[in-house]
Design brief:
106 residues; mainly alpha
């Protein structure tokens, strides 16, 4: 995807150079041209969306995890680690209290 970003940057810089030309400014007033330009710009997003769909499908076919699934799993693991740390802290606080009450009973 980095290659797509570099390509996009080059295209944007070239478009900015052309936009300064008086002939191009005149063409930019044509609604048909603007409509075609907007459609062309949306192709990149459509291609990425379709590539993501294909990637998820291929991952499912081959039994591989997608990036989203791995990210969700990491989040779940982090949440569980936080819960375990909280429970361990509570347990450590409860042990001295239990020891004091046991010694008072003896």
């Amino acid at each position: 995807m980095a290659m797509f970003g570099a390509f996009k940057d080059v295209m944007v810089s070239q478009a900015m150079k052309l936009a300064g030309s008086p002939a191009v400014s005149k063409l930019m007033g044509d609604p048909r041209l603007m409509s075609a330009a907007m459609k062309a710009m949306s192709v990149g997003g459509t291609v990425k969306t379709n590539m993501d769909k294909c990637g998820r499908f291929a991952a499912g076919v081959f039994g591989l995890a997608t990036q989203d699934e791995v990210a969700n799993l990491r989040h779940t693991i982090q949440t569980l680690e936080d819960q375990v740390a909280t429970l361990e802290a509570k347990s450590a606080q409860a042990k001295p209290a239990e020891a004091k009450s046991a010694s008072k009973r003896a």
